[in-house]
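2024-03-11 09:14:02 DEBUG pipeline.ingest accepted 1 chain
2024-03-11 09:14:02 DEBUG pipeline.ingest length=155
2024-03-11 09:14:03 DEBUG pipeline.predict start
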Amino acid sequence: MELKEIQELIKMFDKSKLGELSIENGDFKLSLKTKEQEFVQMMPSTTMMAAPAPQMMAAPAPVAAAATTAAPPAPAAAGTSIKSPMVGTFYRSAGPDKPPFVKPGDKVSKGQVICIIEAMKLFNEIEAEMDGTIVKVLVDDASPVEYDQPLFIIE
């Protein structure tokens, strides 16, 4: 097999839903495997589930119980919480050398970018849902966040 054919085969394999592919042609052997999904199930909870698919399918009840028992207490600060719309990594600024989008005491307007959540190598800008003042930042920079997890308190 020529290099060009191998490259085309890899591209087709990436686009397919196959988990594994092996080809043997005389003394030439090629084996391709996809990486296993680390996070199998996305659900509104405060704990990330990092279990392989067979365990998730075999025991869904304990997973749900673990997720609900690990919920943090409601924030004590008055105001409305801005919650994460997805699972990912929370970033307060556009880069390590950049200032944070917002900090406590800052006035924000609806639609203003307040943080970034990285999910599957995509950086998603999270916008303020209303006008107000940031009272508290509830998540540390570069921390993993869950769907519906409170990120900020806004008044």
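2024-03-11 09:14:41 DEBUG pipeline.report Residues 34 and 100 are 37 Å apart (CA to CA).
2024-03-11 09:14:41 DEBUG pipeline.predict end
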